[in-house]
Design brief:
Elements: E1 5-9, H1 14-25, E2 29-34, H2 40-48, E3 53-57, H3 63-73, E4 83-86, H4 104-136, E5 146-150, H5 166-188, E6 192-197, H6 214-227, E7 235-237
Parallel strand pairs: 1-2, 1-4, 2-3, 4-5, 5-6, 6-7
Helix pairs in contact: 1-6, 3-4, 4-5
Bound molecules: NADP nicotinamide-adenine-dinucleotide phosphate (NAP).
């Protein structure tokens, strides 16, 4: 398998940073989309892989910043982009809301980041994904460029069995639906789209009690992201197991 060009959002820390390191370590090119390109953790990873990682400023809630990022990536990716990983996400609260205390603002902000954010990124990077489709079509037609949306088991409607904070779950359930639907549109352009759950991971979001290290999750995700083929389940965990919707 040759070297791929990969866009990863939320690459400043947690799973996104670990995934950036794993892709670079396997010789791929990573465009690390972060809110602060000069922050220490991403700078340190770039120091280890200076030829392979470029940090680019993005706030996924800001359509203009996403569009500018795509323009900045374009000259570095003359054959287009192979993979877009929509990993950036927020979980603002775990608190279970009482009736009449609906956290409307929290819900808005979470959906804007976790659901609309990935759509902004797909929209901005579509030309570069299509460019890649055109450049690989002749000799490598089994592997298709792909959009990988990082979801969560918390977005599984079928798995809800008790009260819980709804903002995060609603945003990921909506991301799941969005991904299933845009997959049809993207397919016609020669691009695949699917969802991955990274496991419960010891990051700022996952907390210290989580089951998996960032490296375990990122290594598993790396294999699923590259190895996925059309016809496989569309909502899988980092070990490739199909998840319920
Ligand atoms: N950890 C888990 O157990 C777990 C489980 C299931 C799913 N997930 C999903 O996995 C993904 C990564 O989670 P994580 O655990 O690595 O979380 P994390 O450690 O909290 O990191 C979140 C990342 O998202 C970025 N981000 C947040 N808002 C952004 C915005 N508006 N624009 C650009 N970047 C933004 C953050 O950037 P800053 O550094 O600038 O804030 C950071 O890089 C998320 O989509 C999450 O929902 C995680």
């Amino acid at each position: 398998m040759g070297s791929r060009s990969v866009v990863i959002t939320g690459a400043s820390r947690g799973i996104g940073l670990a995934l950036t390191r794993v892709f670079a370590d396997h010789g791929h090119r990573v465009f690390a989309l972060v809110r602060k390109p000069d922050a220490q953790p991403i700078r340190e990873v770039i120091r280890s892989y200076p030829e392979q990682i470029i940090a680019i400023k993005v706030d996924v809630r800001d359509a203009e910043s996403v569009a500018i990022a795509a323009q900045q990536v374009a000259p570095h990716a003359p054959d287009g982009i192979d993979i877009v990983v929509n990993n950036a996400g927020i979980l603002l609260s775990r608190e279970v809301m009482e009736p009449r205390k609906f956290a409307i603002e929290e819900l808005h902000r979470t959906i804007d980041t976790n659901t609309v954010g990935p759509l902004r990124v797909v929209q901005a990077f579509l030309d570069l994904l299509e460019k890649r489709v055109a450049s690989i079509a002749a000799h490598e037609n089994a592997w298709r460029p792909r959009v990988v949306n990082v979801s969560s088991v918390m977005g599984s409607v079928a798995s809800v069995s008790e009260r819980r904070n709804y903002s995060y779950s609603v945003s990921k359930a909506a991301l799941n639906m969005l991904t299933r639907i845009i997959a049809f549109d993207l397919k016609e352009l020669g691009i695949d789209a699917f969802l991955v759950h990274p496991g419960w991971v010891r990051t700022e979001m996952g907390g210290p009690a989580a089951h998996f290290s960032e490296e375990e999750s990122a290594n598993g995700l790396y294999r699923q992201i590259l190895g996925w083929t059309s016809g496989d389940a569309e909502f899988i965990d980092f070990r490739g197991s199909a998840l319920t919707w």
